[in-house]
Specification:
single chain, alpha/beta, Rossmann fold, 6-stranded parallel beta sheet, 4-stranded antiparallel beta sheet, globular, binds nicotinamide-adenine-dinucleotide, binds (2S)-2-hydroxybutanedioic acid
Length: 362
């Protein structure tokens, strides 16, 4: 059979089996770094997402095995593996969302910035290919240091003439996942009744959880892989008043050091992979829902921003058909949070500047 006929037959089959509709159109998701510690469980979770019709798994090695394995799962997404530079273009072609967990992870004693020298080049090369092969895709950047890799991506896209600030996201969902879990554990409240905006960036003190705004989920109907629907009328739960300032300060530090806690526990075998895959899948699911026109999808993300004087900043973002629909403000901060906000700006600015400088080749 001719390849074009094969393709249209497969598409017809999928549609006739009810996998795509006008509300849930065909969606292609590409994962770059799919054979890695995050990439593999993330590939599994995206294969389970019913909004994905085509899943493209790319890495420099190991993807044929991962793709063959994941492809046997009886969910709708058609899985294809791609390996090496020669196949990157095909992997990206037609993608609606590109998720990037490619790059090296930390070992004990390292900061995320210590990864810059290797990961900056990887991200620059991958984003150059995205600009060429799927310039309209939403990009979910996981590779560290996120505070620098997102500005690198922006500069690469600007140079290629494809930059759209609505379509570039630093994935900071794991900070939110941790803040919710740690808060619920300490306050003794069900984790499903907790939501914590985490703002700033994704490294050390640049991670600022706003525990004064501990909210009931924004009408989250299910916990797993569901993004939150924002309802500003739902305000602080009584639980937000139940912890002492000392507890809140300890929870803030634990959230900021959450990545290091995992790096040390893994003792040289990498950083968070499973919780990150979960967080990455939650964020990608939110992006897919936004693209599909589901209203009021809100997640925290590190995006181009005017919330502060810094060009990129993580805060709550409303997602829509074009990516970022609205960057939401910080809300009211208490004195502790105001101090945290001022202290993080110097480090965050320096990481952003470092990324921009690298992208310009200086
Ligand atoms: N944003 C976050 O919250 C967060 C959380 C955890 C980890 N991370 C970061 O994610 C990255 C990946 O972590 P991991 O634990 O999966 O690492 P890993 O080493 O297990 O996997 C990385 C994968 O990237 C692949 N890779 C390397 N260069 C590539 C290229 N040019 N193109 C495509 N693939 C390439 C490798 O072959 C490997 O399979 C690290 O930078 C880590 O710091 C971010
Ligand atoms: O801590 C790391 O190096 C990985 C990641 O950024 C995390 O927060 O777990």
């Amino acid at each position: 059979m001719r390849p074009s006929l094969l393709k249209s037959t497969a598409e017809l089959l999928r549609r006739s089996r009810g996998y795509a509709s006008s509300a849930n159109p065909e969606r292609k998701v590409a994962i770059l770094g799919a054979a890695g510690g995050i990439g593999q469980p993330l590939s599994l979770l995206m294969k389970l997402n019913p909004l994905v019709s085509s899943l493209s798994l790319y890495d420099i090695a190991g993807t044929p095995g991962v793709a063959a394995d994941v492809s046997h799962i009886n969910s709708p997404a058609l899985v294809k593996g791609f390996m090496g530079d020669d196949q990157l273009g095909e992997a990206l072609e037609g993608s609606d969302i590109v998720i990037i967990p490619a790059g090296v992870p930390r070992k004990p004693g390292m900061t995320r910035d210590d990864l810059f020298n290797i990961n900056a080049g990887i991200v620059k090369a991958l984003c150059t290919a995205i600009a060429k092969h799927c310039p309209n895709a939403l990009v979910n950047m996981i590779s560290n240091p996120v505070n620098s890799t997102v500005p690198i991506a922006a500069e690469v896209f600007k140079k290629a003439g494809t930059y759209d600030e609505k379509k570039l996201f630093g994935v900071t969902t794991l900070d939110v996942v941790r803040a919710k879990t740690f808060y619920a554990g300490k306050a003794g409240v069900p984790v499903t009744e907790v939501n914590v905006p985490v703002v700033g960036g994704h490294a050390g003190i640049t991670i600022l959880p706003l525990f004064s705004q501990v909210l009931r989920p924004w009408t989250m109907s299910e916990v797993s892989c569901k993004s939150d629907t924002h309802d500003p009328s739902k305000n602080a739960t009584p639980a937000s008043n139940s912890l002492s300032q000392e507890d809140i300060e300890a929870l803030t530090k634990r959230t900021q050091d959450g990545g290091t806690e995992v790096v040390e526990a893994k003792a040289g075998k990498g950083s968070a992979t499973l919780s990150m895959a979960y967080a990455g899948a939650v964020f990608a699911d939110a992006c897919l829902k936004g693209l599909n026109g589901v209203p009021d999808i809100v997640e925290c993300s590190f995006v181009q921003s005017t919330v502060t004087e810094l060009p990129f900043f993580a805060s709550k973002v409303r997602l829509g058909k074009n990516g970022v629909e609205e960057v939401l403000g910080l809300g009211e901060l208490n004195d502790f949070e105001k101090k945290g906000l001022e202290s993080l700006k110097v480090e965050l600015k320096s990481s952003i500047d470092k990324g921009i400088k690298f992208a310009h080749g200086s």
